[in-house]
Structures are given as structure tokens and as C-alpha cells.
Amino acid sequence: xxxxxxVEWDGPxxxxxxxxxxxxxxxxxxxxxxxxxxxxxxxxRPDVRALVLQAEGRSFSxxxxxxxxxxxxxxxxxxxxxxxxxxxxxxxxxLDFPVxxxxxxxxxxxxxxxxxxxxxxxxxxxxxASFTPWYNVVGFSPDGGWTALLPALIGPRRAAxxxxxxxxxxAREAVEWGLASRxxxxxxxxxEAWRVAxxxxxxxxxxxRRTRRLLRAAWGDVAARLxxxxxxxxxxxxxxxxxxxxxxxxxxx
Length: 253
Fold this sequence. Notes:
Blueprint: E1 5-10, E2 13-18, H1 29-43, E3 50-55, H2 66-71, H3 76-95, E4 101-105, E5 108-110, H4 114-118, E6 122-125, E7 130-132, H5 135-138, H6 150-154, H7 156-165, E8 169-170, H8 171-177, E9 182-183, H9 189-201, H10 205-217, H11 222-237, H12 240-250
Parallel strand pairs: 2-3, 3-4, 4-6, 5-7, 6-9
Antiparallel strand pairs: 1-2, 7-8
């Protein structure tokens, strides 16, 4: 069976590829478990100088798998608590990773998967890339850093309007607003991410690590803010509104 997170190497650069393309790399416990294991393993490797995060298929990732949530029935609270807990640990692991993270983003990014983008240091986006919350449509509460991290990058007013109106952030807007670093042609975005990571890997490693730590210190207590999102998500997921929203979203009955 193909891994849900593929690990690749190019010299001192490691790559993690989300590999659930048939489901648009939507987040399920199995994928997040593999991602956490891979990050823990790479963190122990002193030969890693930079990390590339990318995805297989047409979408980068569409966030939590709504069908999986819906199928839990009365067990949805426990499922949601576990899944969002895993997501928060993955976002935190990327934020705390000892070397820079370069994300290559193509296609759709929705829901909690935005956390992977927010946690990266350099974000390269294909022209068709887009970022949409979808929480207020389905009936969920934001997770993955939409309230914990996004306002610091694009501003609280923009973040509020995007979330409350369920607006889509285009690739161009992502760069102009500070969510992404630059737009790269779709056919080049993955190769460019590896090139940038290799460039970073050639620099003085101690200096690079300290620079990243100093930049990350400006985020403050991210863990506490992510935990607040976790609690609100779990409280909302058990409401009739969320159950009905999932049913409509999935076209069930």
C-alpha cells in the first residue's frame, strides 16, 4: 500500500509529500499519524538542512474529510478531538522544526490544511492555488490556525472578512497579503521549492537554525491559541447545525 505521506531526499534536503490524491489529500487520522511520525524521525536527523512540503494530485489538501466526520455519528466528538489534536501537533511540529520549511502549494487548500502553509517559512504558490475556509458553510468551527495564526500574517480585518464571508484567497492575493512568498508557474512550483530548499541548505546551518528560532519567537504562544481552536471545534461539531451542514454538504438525503 502506498504511504499517505511520502518521504524523499535530495542531499541534505528532505521532502514530505501528502499522498492521498484520490481524496484531495483530505486529513484523516492515518495521514496525520504518518506525517507526525515522519516529522519526528526527520527532526532526529542531523543531516537534514531544509524541508520541502508538497502534495500529490490536483489539490494540496482540502482539510478534514467531511465524510469521515459524518460517518462517526454519536462518536463524532471523540473523532474530532483526536483529529484536531493530531493536526495541532503537526502544525506545531512544523513550526518547531529545527530547519526551514519550504511549501510548494498547488490547487485547493481548504479547512485545517491551511495550518501546514501557515507553519512554513517560504511558501511558493502555483497561479491556480487558492485558500478557502468553508467552516461557516459546513457548520464547523475554524481550526488549523485560521484564527490562531492567519490574522498575524494578513491582518485581523482581512482574516475576519475571509472567515465570516467564506471568501477565497487567490494566489495573487496570498502573496500581496503576506500569506505566500511568491507565485511560481504551476509546472515549476515543486522544482522551485526544492531549489530554494537546496539554496538554504548550503548556508551556515547554525546561523539558519538560530534565525528560524528568532523568527518563530515572534508568533508567541501558538500552542495555547491552537488549543482554543481545538476546544471550539469539538464544541461545534456535536451541534445539530454541524450535523445538518455535513448532511447538506455531502448531499445525503
